[in-house]
Amino acid sequence: MKTLLLALFALVGAGCVVVPQNRRARLADPMMAMAPDALETHQKQKFYSTREGAAGGDGAAAGGGCACQ
Amino acid sequence: MLAAAAALSAAAPARAADPGPAFSDTDILGAPPPYFRFESVSLRFTRFDQTGTGYQSRAGPKGGPGSEALAVDEAQLEVVAKQGERITYRLWVPVDIVTAASPDSIDVVSSASRQNEAASVDLTTIYEASPVTSLSVRNGLHNEENWRSWNTSLGVTRSFAEDNTVVEAGVTQISDWFDKYTLAGAHDGHTARSSTSGSLGVTQILSPTTVGHVDYGLTLQRGQLSNGWNIVPLTSGGVALEVLPEGRVRHALSGRIAQWLPWNGAAHAAYRFYVDDWGIRAHTVDLELYQRVASVAYLRFGYRFHRQTGASFFHTRVERDFTIATADSDLAAFDAQTLGAKVAVDVPVRFARSLHVDVGADRYFRTNDLRVNVFSCGFGLLF
């Protein structure tokens, strides 16, 4: 948990650096997308949430909508 | 001075007769996009083949464990369209065909329903209130053999510092109505479940080659949280329906970072910590490595590790007078691993901006006897 909080603070601290738009070409590559394909993301979310006791933390509800735990 | 005034008055009639520029705005900037237009159409087909055993299944010897063999064919359609400059629609239709060994109570008395079909219709509307703020509304209906579900969500996204920081927040309500069955498989009326969720996420550009994301989600569930047909073996030799608590509070905190690699690749690393009031704590690590192999194609290799503790009321055998108990292997303590690979191609075509095709396979395996092979292929047109 401490490591996670440190990472969180590092992330927020790094927010002070502004990268101009003309230097974001690498970030625009599909390989850098956080969720490259909405349908594949759903497929994975459903697969794991129906087979594991843990879910959530990805913007989606952790449960409901299916005959699963 | 007089000479200048005379020259100006002489030039005035010439300006009035000017026919105007030879090029219009459309010639220079191109035709404005149509008011309603399709942005993309995507299709995905996935096949899940599962084998393994669990004490919640009736497809086995008395006292279990029973088979968890399962096959799912899933097709998904997504259409994204834009209306004007500010409104975007996303229509999503997933269809599942599930063939199971014998998980549901109807199969206890009849094998007529060994194949179940499930379908959803889900529409998201996104309104761009300003160049930095978007609002979204999402509604969906889900229908399957003995299950009806409605979900609705509200979301807001705001970007700061020239889009270097994007903050997202959302709330979701999912309401489920489903049939109850007795242990013998007879219909026993209806029941309901409510799941209310809130999430807050921040995406931050960290450098010209690095981006990070953190997310927190809280989900509160009430109602009948068991699916209605899972069983618990009894010490006396019989079985009973599982009984779960009527509420559940679930927290999940996750972080993800993506780093561009100088050899035309990318690496993603993600971690999630999960805890709930059923006694489950979980740590999940997800690693992905991308490598571009041509200007239009890339490969992805993935590894995921998940470790969870079991629910405090998980037992593979209980006394007849138990109050709360489950034998569901998904709520047990276990480690799970996933290995996967995918190849994706994006090529420009004559009738669209690009055509996307990808093919992938994953192997999921757990320490408590569950294995799943997943095969998936996706097609998309970006207009």
Question: How would you characterize this protein structure?
Answer:
The complex is a heterodimer of chains A (69) and B (383). The longest helix of chain A has 13 residues, at 2-14. Chain A is built from two helices and no strands. Helices cover 36% and strands 0% of the residues of chain A. Chain A starts with a helix and ends in a 20-residue tail after the last helix. The mean pLDDT of chain A is 81. The radius of gyration of chain A is 17 Å and the shape is elongated. Chain A has 69 residues and is mostly helical. Chain B has 383 residues and is mainly beta. Chain B has a domain at 126-382: Porin (Beta Barrel). Helix content of chain B is 6%, strand content 64%. In chain B, strand 7 and strand 8 form a beta hairpin. Chain B is elongated, with a radius of gyration of 28 Å. Chain B starts with a helix and ends with a strand. At the A-B interface, helix 1 and helix 2 of A face strand 1, strand 3, strand 4, strand 7 and strand 8 of B.
- Cα shape of chain B: elongated
Task: Provide mean pLDDT of chain B, rounded.
Answer: 90
Class based on secondary structure composition and strand pairing of chain B: mainly beta
Helix content of chain B: under 10%
Computed CA radius of gyration of chain B, to the nearest angstrom: 28 Å
- State the end-to-end CA separation of chain A: 25 Å
Oligomer: heterodimer
CATH class of the domain at 126-382 in chain B: Mainly Beta
H-E string of chain A? HH
